[in-house]
Amino acid sequence: MNRTLPPNATEAAEAIKARQLWQNYRAAAPRPDAAGALDLAAYADGRLRGAARDAVEAYLARNPQALRDVLAARAAHAGEATKAKPSIGRRPSVMDRLGWGAALCAFCLAVWMGFATGEQVASTDNEAYSLYSVAGDDNVDL
């Protein structure tokens, strides 16, 4: 049986749904006292100074999960720094040069093939173009 609610009951049900939606939004919305992701990253890198650093430390004191995340980021960054190769002043290896040379050759080949294909399609000797010119419709882009 399909019952319809009276108009007032429908409006009341919509108001309840709207109130629940607003409550869910308020619960999921970021809190104004929460530190931003960039502030946490700067704190983990040790680049945050002054009042911003104090605010992030207060936030981390209230949120142990965020503190664990910052400590994990610091540990990952410390391990990464020892494995990193210096890129300044490093000469490209033979394999690097071969890779870039192959990429350049592939690019030149693709440009040449595209030009040749476009030239062939646009030529007047092409059968598709001649069919349009016989029909009298010369303003057709192929």
Give a description of the structure:
This protein is mainly α and 142 residues long. Helices cover 72% and strands 0% of the residues. It is built from six helices and no strands. It has helices at 7-28, 37-45, 50-62, 64-83, 94-122, 127-135. Helix 3 (50-62) packs across helix 4 (64-83). The radius of gyration is 33 Å and the shape is flat.
The number of distinct helices, counting runs of at least 4 residues, comes to 6
Mean pLDDT: 76
Cα radius of gyration in angstroms: 33 Å
The SS-based structural class is: mainly alpha
- The rounded distance between the terminal residues' Cα atoms is 61 Å
Q: Report the strand count.
A: 0
The fraction of residues assigned to DSSP E strands is under 5%
List segments where confidence is low: pLDDT < 50 over at least 5 consecutive residues. none
Report the principal-axis shape: flat
How helical, in percent, are the residues?
over 70%
Main sheet properties: none
What is the element string, with H for helices and E for strands?
HHHHHH
